[in-house]
What we know:
alpha/beta; Rossmann fold; ProC C-terminal domain-like fold; 8-stranded mixed β-sheet; 10 helices; elongated
Amino acid sequence: MNLSLLVIGGGKMGHAMVKCVLASGLFTKKQIGIIDPTAKRRSFLTADLGCHIFDIGDKTIPPVDLVIIAVKPHQISSAIKKYLPPPNSLVISIAAGINIKTLSSLIPKSHIVRAMPNTPCIIGQGVSVYYAKNTTTSEEKMIITLLSTMGKVLKVDEEAKINYATSITSSGIGFVYYYALATYKQAIDFGFNEKEADLLVRLNFSGASQMLKHFKDKTMQSLIDDVATAGGTTACGINAFEKEGLADNIAIGLKACLKRTLEIAKQGV
């Protein structure tokens, strides 16, 4: 059995990444393996993806030169003890908070990359931020090619920015949904039924995201100004937000996310 890609962890992100890779044609089902410790999950992955699916610790898993670590931070150590990537392999970790120094202590002879994708990668509309150290030109090409199957890719020059990206792009998606939910609840309170409120909120956020994508020459402030004419209803609402310190509270949430990321880093694996 010859595999081109091995994913350690078949959870939501590991599953989504493999689906994008398959859809892109980068690798075939026969070239991809996934390790997962849960029998029920392995059955799902087999039925949905048709790749090679392994239990953790399976002795039949071959050496693979391209590995994605997609388990929770506290599971990395035990997972690596069961399957150690071969020397000179390219290992991409998407575990929040776990730095390259820690990963290198577990996988000392591999080339380690930290990446932070977000959940829109499920539909190929995500963004993956990554940091690589001591990788070759061919490895850099593979990193970008692989991550590009899920959406846009941004390489950063400092590892610390991966932790910041966790707040802004990874957890940040959840914060967008949080605001959408608050809007939905208020729509219900105004008198819309659940179906109407759901439709309006989804279309509103979808339209706004498309405007951000389409009008790249416009700043976010200018897009606000296009809607918030002086003395109008939008300006009145934004003034109320500012009076209540909404922007400051958003910053508090983002910083709390970063704080937790750094706590995970200190806890290690």
